[in-house]
Structure formats: structure tokens, C-alpha cells
Amino acid sequence: MSLKILNIDTPTLGDRGYIAHDGATALVVDPQRDIDRVEEILQVHGLELGAVVETHIHNDYVSGGLVLAQKYGSQYITNAADPVEFDRVAANDLDEFVIGDFAIKALHTPGHTFTHLSYILLNNSGTPAGIFTGGSLLHGSTGRPDLLGPDHAASLAALQHNSVHRIAELLHDDIPIFPTHGFGSFCAATATSGSASNIGDEKKFNPALQQSVERFVSETLASLDAFPAYYKHMGPRNHAGAAAIDLSELSRLSTAEVIKLLESNAWLVDLRDKADWANAHLPGSVNFGVNGSFATYFGWLFDYENQLVLISDQAADISEAQRELVRIGIDRPAGSYVGDVESLGAVKTTKLVNFADVPAVLAKPEIAVLDVRRKGERDASHIAGTLHIPLHEIQNRIGELPKAKTIWVHCAGAYRAAIAASLLENAGLSVVMINEPYEKALLVADLEIVAGAIDQTPVAPSDTKVTA
Questions:
Q1: What is the pLDDT of the chain when averaged over all its residues?
Q2: Are both 236 and 299 inside the same structural domain?
Q3: Are strands 176-179 and 286-287 parallel, antiparallel or unpaired?
Q4: Which residues, in sequence order, are CB contacts of 233 under 8 Å at separation 6+?
């Protein structure tokens, strides 16, 4: 028997689910909430769903596992120690579960959460064929240990080190690992490398397998940067068990209805590309292009109690945004508008510039250049003489910016710069957006780049706790 493993990637959240199958029966690992992607694969390959398994109660997305398992009458496997509010098959350390002509063995691997399980994939002869590591052993890294709050971070980091060593000691070097996080996810403790590896690769390059527990804990904690604020909503939803989603077309709002909602402080989210937004946008709207890391940054900044309206000139953008939003627990926005934004009323334009334009304005008293990247990004390299407020802090710190100056704003790729520009404009500031990736700044001879320096901008420690 040859087991096959299929990836189900969600690049906007940096996650990957899996389908393992023997040609007849399938196991689904860590599925996102939009289960139609899973169902399509099952149908195309003619597979019966044997089981759905969660490596942990997820912090960064709402799981579709419960709905998927209930729909197909399959086993839904989670850790016995997770206090969930639904019926499931409880897994304990070293328990085995048969799925078709193969099986999985649960392995307690705490670190990302206290109840985290990895699952060794066993073929029909009981031989390991891979391991689903969730948020434990990642490609060149591990899952971050601070999502339960700072009080648990050090102990979880130490447990993570032990768990990774347990995995490496139990399995041969040629056994592939299949992590859920680490493809751009904020659930990774440090940057990951590549999209595939095995135990032998990780022994050579993974810090958790190269360092003592003391050094690993110290360096892991020192490297941690902020994580999205919306994570606080995910654990409770996953413990309760999320209901099925509705991706049917949102109600289409008239011009008058859009304006009325905007005047009532609803969030009017422009889903178009940043350049299109800059060329013409409705004052008061906020740009979150659906072609970027939409769900992550939107969820980070959006107050879940607010009303939400989606606008674009393309209906496909609305549909894609709906799919992204249900993954982070935002089910049905108040409505949508599809059409030319200029038909909504008087529009505004935001000037776009390049990094080559920056040297000439850095010394001008009427202009300030603002970097909205995260602290770790700025610590690694930044333009001398620029201000710094990370995007996720900007709504609470707009008052720190000089209102008499024009703010030139940049980030790493210009996606966050557009979000920041729209927020600053809505606060009454004059804004110019640098519409280039930061790498272009490194090529500008007249810009002084500070590399490896420590940013002294105060950053308040996060006291956000995520139930996991």
C-alpha cells in the first residue's frame, strides 16, 4: 500500500492542512473552516472520509473539523485533555486510531499549547510513513510558546524543546514532517525555511535540535514579536465548535445605504489593489486589498463588534473576502457594494512615490517618513531618520504623529503601507504612500540604512491571552 498525502494550503494565514489517504479512505488533518476545498479533493479522488484530526485547539483560525466530521459521520479526534463542548473521539498519548488500511498514533508534544498532539502516520504494516506535527516541529523552527500569555511562555518553550527531541528520537531521519504552521504564519516562533523536510533535515538545521534547552528558551523568547489581536477570538470558537459557514452572496447595498453605514461608523473596506485604491477612493474607507495577507491584517485591526461593509469593482473580490473572513470567525458582513467607487460620491487620491524619492524629503521639516513594519523587521534594518509605529499599534498611536507634516508611509511590501495610509487619512493627516517593497530602499545610494540596530521605540508588552 502506498499512502498519499495532499496539501491544503491557506497562504494568507500561513497554514497548511492535509489529506492522507490509501486510495479509498481519507484522514483530514487540521482543516480550515471552508471545508468545500476538502470535499472537492475527496470527490475528485473518490475517497471516503474516515477521520478528521486536530493537532491542537487552533489560535489563528476557526476550524472546520467538527462540521466536516459531522457531515460525513466520521471520527473527530482531539486531545482528551481539551475541554471542548462537543462530542469527539478523545485521544491520549500513544493512542492509535485505524483509518481505512492505515492508522495514526497520537504523540503528546506540548509547547505550542499544553495539550498539543502530533500524529505519527502508520502504513498497513505499522511502519511510520510521516508525522503531522501541527505547531510543534516546523520546517526550521517551532510553534511559538507565548499564545497563552507571557506567564506560560518560558515553560512552554522548554516543553517545546523536549517535544521536538521526543519526535526526533522516535523516528528515523528519512521520515517526513508535515507541520500545520510555518508558511508565513504568526504561530511560528521564528521564520521557517522551505516547504518540505524530514527528521534528518531538522536535526541539521532546526535550532530546537541544535541548542541546549536553556539557549533555545532564551533565544526563542527574545525573538518573539507581536501576534495578531484576533487570535483571542479563535480559541473560544474552537473549544465551542464552530457552526457551518454561509458563503452565499452578500446583500448588495445601494449608494445611499453604503453612505448611511459609513456615517454610522461602520467599517467600509475597499478590497481593491492598493494602487487602484490610491488612484480613487471614498473618504472614510479603509484599504485591505484581498490580494494580500487580507485575513491576518484585517483581523488584527478590526473590532469584531463593528459593522462591516465590503466594496470593490469586482464581485470576485467580495466572494474571496467572505471566504477569508469566515476563517477568522467573521461570518456575515452587513453587506457589499460592487461597482465603480466614484459612483459612491466624491473620491480622494493618495499620492504614490518610490524609495528613490525619499532622500530628497528626509530633511524637509514639513515631511516625516513613517515605517509601519513590526519591531523585529525594523530592528533588522531601517532607514535612518524615519519614525516607527507598527501597523497593529497605529490606531492607538496616531496622536503621536505630527499633524502639521505630510506623512510618507512605507512597510516591507507596500500592502501594510496602504492600510496605514487609509487609517491616517481618515484621522485627518496628509499622507503619501511609498509603493515599493523595502528591498528597493537598500538600492538607493543616498539613503542611510541602519542594519541590526535595536529600535528604542517603546513597545508595550502584550497581555493578550489566547485560549488554547
A1: 94
A2: no
A3: unpaired
A4: 304, 328, 329
